[in-house]
Amino acid sequence: MWYKDKFEVCGGPQEHKLQGFVISTTQRLFRAWKARLHVLYSSYSTDEDRLSHRPMDIEGQLQQLVVEQQSEEVKHPMNRDEILSSVLEMHDDIRLEMQADMDRKLEEECEQLAANLKRNMEEYLSKN
Q1: What's the superkingdom here (predicted)?
Q2: Distance between CA 50 and CA 66 in Å, rounded?
Q3: How far, in Å, are 14, 46, 60, 84 from residue 80 at the CA level?
Q4: How far apart are CA 42 and CA 70, in angstroms?
Q5: Per residue of the chain (128 residues), what is the pLDDT tens digit?
Q6: CA–CA separation, 42 and 50 (whole Å)
């Protein structure tokens, strides 16, 4: 993840706590940003007004997407099951990414332990 480039992170439980913190903070900030956008865009009655009064942090195609999502004239709203399946797919993707990362780290640890064991055995045999 990007934070590993910026911060020195130890392995183990501390890293998992940091990953959880980063993910929860990102989710919280994204929800707050979406809520601010909703308040802004819901104050205008038409899509044309919404497009002409865009926030500074939204540009081009992203603005068009936001306006389409905030529009009250939604053509195909998602029902509860579709929303649930969409959220579960996102969580599965995150879980799979974290699992792959943990598997990679476990494999690296096993390789390191095997190398240490081999070195220790060679030292022990050379002494005897």
Answers
A1: Eukaryota
A2: 9
A3: 36, 27, 30, 6
A4: 7
A5: 555 566 666 667 777 777 788 888 888 988 888 888 788 878 887 777 777 776 666 666 566 666 666 665 555 666 777 777 777 777 777 878 888 889 999 999 999 999 999 999 999 999 87
A6: 8
Q: Where are the beta strands (DSSP E) in 21-65?
A: none
For residue 108, the one-letter residue type is E
Category of 114 on φ-ψ map: left (φ > 0), alpha (ψ -120 to 50) or beta:
alpha
CA dihedral of 37, 29, 76, 90, whole degrees rounded to 10: 160
**Which structure tokens are listed for 56?**
């500074």
Residue 51 CB partners (closer than 8 Å, separation 6+): 63, 64, 67
Q: Residues 34-64, buried b or exposed e (16+ Cβ, 10 A)?
A: eeebeebbeeeeebeebeeebeeebeeeeee
Supply angle C-alpha 75, 76, 78, rounded to 5.
145
